[in-house]
Amino acid sequence: MLNLPPEPGTTGYVLLALGAAAGLLLLLLGRGRVAAELGDDDRLLTLLVTGALAATVAGAPFTLWRVLVDIRETAPITPEHAEYVGAETKLIDGELVRLIEARIPADETYYVRVSPDAYSEIRESLPRWLGYELLPRRQTRRAREADWVVTWGATPVQLGLRSAPPRLIGRNRLSAREPVYLAERAS
Amino acid sequence: MTRDLLALALANACVLAAGHGVLRLMGLRPALGDLPWSVGVGYIAGAAAVGVLGSALLTAGLALTGWQIVLLCAALTAAGFARRGELRQPTRVKARGWIRLLPLASAAALAVLAVDLAVQPIWADDAWAIWAIKAASIVELGGLDPAFLSSASVFSADYPLVVPVLELLALRFYGLPNELVPLQLGLVFLAFPAALVALLRDRVRPLLLWSVVLAVALAPSLQIQAASAVADVTLAVFFALAGAAGWRWMERGEDELLWLTALFAAAAVGTKVEGTLFACLLVVALAAAARVRRRLLALAGAAALVAASALPWELWSRRHGLGNALSEAGGAGSADLLGSLDRIPRAALALTRELADPSAWLALVALSVAAIALAFLRERRAAALFTLFVAGTSLAGLLVVYWTTPLDFDYHVATSVRRVITAPILFAAAMTPLLLTRDQQSR
Q: Which domain holds residue A38?
């Protein structure tokens, strides 16, 4: 869930306490009904089923509250924004990727390299996010096979890549404002 | 949004109709008012059949357009209704008294989750990097494109196609590229409790059944994973239902339950790579329990069908040299296995820690473990051994994967262990009501 509360907070702790109280009551007072329903004189079975129900009831208010908080926080996301929320969870500015997408023709290929100084989330995720977002453009495994070079956090030359003069696409608003460049392959 | 939700309802009505066709082909004719069978098993059977056959059609060169999906569903429906011979209508059983609170509470929890799925974007990295990218590429490129799938764009390109096919339902029938994909994929989980009730209700007490269903509906890890639009919950649903249907076949000997087992096992194999391991272990356990020659032959036939269902994608992905994260890192076993022996206890500890986490599973895992122990104590050894073997060896298989991984061990464990244990857990949970029921006792 995109916006699951990271900590219970006051409401969460109150719900956990209420749930625990309800579960305890069920454990203490509900065994007779459970035994009657099971129609079985197996005390261990009765205790097990009552205990499982009590534990589930204890966790239910907090669990459902977290889902409701997620709904409240996630529902306002617009469909357009929803398309690149996945990038933002990895500190990648999705709007920069949109700008790159607008400049690379759909039938051409690209290579991507990230500066070693960039955050590890970006280093690990950027090639994958571009693979998804820049569809149907194909990502190559080697720079020399690509029509275009995308570099994140440094110019192609600084990352040891040969290319035509790069264009600064923008700066990543979600981390250290590192620059993002796009360049055509060196002719 | 309203228009998209209507399109979702229409597309999934086709899947449901296909599921009923498949059930009739197997010899089952659930009444429409019998919701656990008609909606629960019916929908998941439809999703499994459309997923497996859709994967094969993609490898044959089709693009699975909206009309092709509708025609596939119509063909399955028509095949079922053209079947001659006697069809069995499952027995209906209703909960009474205060027990009715449990289905109501379960339905309420699932309804809240459904709303959450409807507002959820695709955000988890595995969801877009492995699954949605394949579905989106099929739409953008007019079918499976080997050049794109073997390019650096795609992560773990050789993973099977059932999840992308189910996501295609969303992409082909709705508006924006990834809107409603999490809800579409989550429908299989939302239908799971009803399907489990359908399969077990004539065998176990309603209280036992609905206690497990409520624990499943409220398990935080299942809710979170369903909303993440990753494949693990889908795999878990297919595997758990295959296990429960397989055991019911052992008990009752009704062939339709075996075909249902085969269908769900084929869908599990077509969902994730570990689905193949889990399905093999399930077949081994059923074979060990079957003993009678006629049943062993029937089981062998069902297993052959499951294997055949996996062939089209297996052949296609090999022909085009598709790989995955493990193969690209050198393949399992490229690590120094003797020098990596310390990984086994570390991975076992990580698995145990996740299994024992009540904030992830509430009572679900504890209940399943206690049910296995109680079944041994109360002389219900066959069901206990079956559950313990399948769940235990599935977890052991995961342990071997972590031992032999060519990836960074800590990274591999940290990013996957919470998800990959889901299928064995849901299988054990599905078996729990049976484990708690005396052999001669029916409801």
A: 9-74
Q: Is the residue at A70 inside a domain?
A: yes
Rounded CA-CA distance B363/B371 in Å is 12
Q: What is the pLDDT of residues B130-145, one digit of tens each?
A: 999 999 999 999 999 9
Radius of gyration of chain B (CA): 21
CB count in 10 Å sphere of residue B409: 18
How many Å lie between the alpha carbon of B109 and the closest alpha carbon of chain A?
Answer: 7
List CB contacts (< 8 A) between B99 and chain A: 37
User: Is the preceding omega at residue B193 within 30 degrees of 0, hence cis?
Assistant: no
Asked if the Cβ–Cβ distance from B125 to A64 is below 8 Å, we say: no
From chain B residues 196-215, the ones with a CB under 8 A of any chain A CB are: 205-208, 211, 214-215
Burial (CB count within 10 angstroms: exposed 0-12, middle 13-18, buried 19+), residue A41: exposed
Q: Give, in degrees to the nearest 5, the angle at Cα A132 between A128 and A135.
A: 130
Indicate the pTM of the whole model.
Answer: 0.94
The neighbouring-strand residues paired with A110 are A139, A148
> Does residue A93 share a domain with residue A19?
no
Closest CA to B261 of B309, B294, B291, B303: B303
Cα–Cα distance, B261 to B83 (Å, whole number): 20
Quote the CA–CA distance of B267 and B199 in Å, as a whole number: 18
Query: What pLDDT is recorded for position B443?
Result: 47
Q: Which of these three, A58, A74, A90, is where a domain ends? A: A74
